[in-house]
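[INFO] parsing input record for Signal recognition particle subunit SRP72
[DEBUG] input buffer:
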Amino acid sequence: VLQISKDDVTALQCKVVCLIQNGNFKEALGVINTHTKVLTSDVIAFEKAYCEYRLNRIENALKTIQSASQQTDKLKELYGQVLYRLERYDDCLAAYRDLIRNSQDEYEEERKTNLSAVVAAQSTWEKVMPEDLGLREATYELCYNSACALIGQGKLNEAMKKLQRAEELCRQSLSEDSDVTGEGIEAELAIIHGQMAYIMQLQGRTEDALQLYNQIIKLKPTDVGLLAVIANNIITINKDQNVFDSKKKVKLTNAEGVEHKLSKKQLQAIEFNKALLAMYTNQADQCRKLSASLQSQSPEHLLPVLIQAAQLCREKQHAKAIGLLQDFADQHPVNAAEIKLTMAQLKIAQGSVTKACMILRSIEELQHKPGMVSALVTMYSHEEDIDSAIEVFTQAIQWYQQFQARTDYGCCVFQPKSPVHLSLIREAANFKLKHGRKKEAISDLEELWKQNPKDVHTLAQLISAYSLVDPEKAKVLSKHLPSSDTMSLKVDVDALENSHGATYVRKKAGKLTGDNQQKEQGQGEVKKKKKKKKGKLPKNYDPKVTPDPERWLPMRERSYYRGRKKGKKKDQVGKGTQGSTTAGSSELDASRTASSPPTSPRPGSAAAVSATSNVIPPRHQKPAGAPATKKKQQQKKKKGAKGGW
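[DEBUG] output buffer:
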């Protein structure tokens, strides 16, 4: 038909629809753009917008829809999808409500599913409290979207129950379809299981979450967005551990088309984790590149600057890191508090506690907070700067007094006589008493007592402080103490002493008379005598012999020490001129001692040995140096030996 009439509108429309059905969106859009004179926006607006939507040209699709002269139902459906992709959730919610209200066909269930998805996205990404749409959760898609909305509210247990219900409905629905296999059911359940694992991760059940994440990856789902989210969550579980596994998983986040499947916040979180992973794997240049790119995309965001500062600290450039944070705090005063807290932490790590205190005190919106006051007082006390610590207390107390002085309590952050205010005064008084500032503590204690005259503890502290400064005033105040009669408590002393938690338990003693009493006294005397133990004496101790006065000194340091005595064989072998024999040479003769056992000679036999030592036959005589030489050779062998018997 087009060969006969190339500008036939109906034929061109049919060709565009066929190309769309075959998935050739780019070619279909080319045909529309080539025949703009014939295929006007009124004729083919939906097909053009749909091609642009499928080619991820979302802004162009929005312009095409808005330029159409007539807004048909199918254009409105596409308009809602485009608004969702652009994350304009309020407009999207209004569009779907209008569609559901003004249309009645077989697609009503799909519209309700899309509407619940918009509500879930608002709850998750914009932290908007979702309204009850009154949708009957009869399908697993509606249950899943409801669970996502509950996760956004932090209701994790309820969300898990919804996901379990969604899993049941999904299995039931798909099992009825004969064309769907078991693998197909598991693939469809993958996104539900992924959300379950995310809840486990938020609840601190990281091992269970990691196991479920890995099971989903083994299924190899075709949804690149799901794989990217799971890989990112595994990286967050690994943190600075198991970095090799994280480097493998990060490849899944770089798959083609991921940017079109995820929201901007999801993509941003993935990029943050990539930068952190580069820092943990010591890829400094890659870390700086990624963090700089993130900062250019979101100049007001804290994380890119914090990552850059962390990388500088790893490179031992603390001063440069602090300078970077200070510049960011000056440019973005809204986020200055968090940045200054980080700067103070770096100063403390460097040992500059006083400078850290100065930075913390410059955060005006946190000066009066009890946590900040406690931290500053602790740090100043560590530096022994008591005056500055007291000044911190004073400024915080004055801040609360200014608010309490207002008459228009509707504008007040705290009501008069705030517990926080009184707690700060009490802590200041205790701190001053501890560091000897009695007069300053007295004014704080008097203020507390005025607020609550029935507080006996505060009155006792006040009297104690006055007793060191003004005893007369202490006596006057002591009259306000309650009498002993009013303070007496009905306490059973015996039961208290015999209780399980008592440090001293009085034994129940029976009446002792006569012999029993003497026996008890005798046992007491024996016990006393046993405590005086005599020192132990050596077994060979002789009381008649005077102990050696040098017995406490080491043997080498004693006056009579003459060194170690050499062995007999060492004295006898190798002595005298070469070829001569010694008195003990007969002992080395194997033929003379073959029949005798290798033991020490008996008493009385030494004279016989020495008498016959000069009558050794010449053939049995050996040079005096031979044994010594043999011994040296043995010593050399021993040096090189590595084994033993």
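[INFO] Residues 9-124 form a domain with the Serine Threonine Protein Phosphatase 5, Tetratricopeptide repeat fold (CATH 1.25.40.10).
[INFO] shutting down worker
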